[in-house]
Design a protein that fits this description.
single chain, 358 residues, alpha/beta, Globin-like, Methyltransferase, Methionine Synthase (B12-binding Domains), Chain A, domain 1, Rossmann fold, 3 domains, 5-stranded parallel β-sheet, 5 strands, 61% helix, flat
Length: 358
Amino acid sequence: MNEQNRSLSYLIDESARAFSEWIVTRHSNLDPTLPQRYGENWRANWVADTRHRLAVLAQAVAVGRTEVFAGSFGWSMAAFEAREVRGDDLVSSLQCMREILSSELPPESATPALNTIDVALRHPPTADAATWSGALDPKKPHGLLALRYVEALLEGRRSAAESLILDAVRRDGIPVHDIYTHVFSPSLIEIGSMWHLDEVTVADEHFATGVTEGLMALLRTDFHREPTLNRRAAVAGLTGDLHSVGIRMVGDFLEMAGWEVLCLGCNTPGSDLAEYLVHHEIHLLALSVTNTLCLRSVAELIQCLRGTEQLAALPIIVGGRTFQQVDGLWETVGADGMAATASEAPAVAEQAWRSRGG
């Protein structure tokens, strides 16, 4: 991680509160219709969104990848337009952000931030281009089961959802591996997309996550486990990343492949990890990154571990939506490999293990 970029990213974070106020003020001066069009809480809402966008900008600057910010901008475009916020307003806000940062950041160090914004402005995404599709498809393996599972979840029928999955495994003989890959993953992706597009609520998403995590716990007794590898893996998400299902799936796939897994869950402080990894003689670290705002922390953690004598050769793999969206980002943060899906984790872990002399 470039030290100058890292310092600039922290400067943006530290100044984000003031910057966001100035950006919104500039935006409203250019377009006095904002208060009328967005209601009495318009300013607070725009300030909060602008501050979040500055936080993403800081992460993109820290790791030196403009695609991180451009991708997040497209993601926001889809959410905004689904909630009847005009895409051109978002573009105008970003133009105001560039103007404010150009005048307020130190001229000698501002270029990475301004260039990152310019990349997003040159090719503003459409809402359609920023959303995923096809997560659920009846023509895919177990696609009908996934559709029925989502239907039960969105109707709040927990028992029905559980029966669908348990019968599929224990009566019909579908391997747990396939349930994770072809039912749980696409179902949660679809529901997450629906929430993003304002088609379901946060409560719907939380219910679906809770039911799925409960089923994952029940299905542990149905795992098909490969012979033990006599290797121990730690699986975690760092502070600020609150998505736990992907982390648990990675841990379960590694366990099915013969690893002994210590699943630390989400929101794990990076400052505690080094001591934990040494104390428990960990042979592999798998980090899940769903929240873009954790990118800098991941890069800093890996840099710290590489500088720790006992952990310098530790294989580290990463995964999560953030790394799926930007080619080679896993290399940028210093990892040894990236699993695009949880089911890929064992193969990626094996390759990382061998590359580190295991």
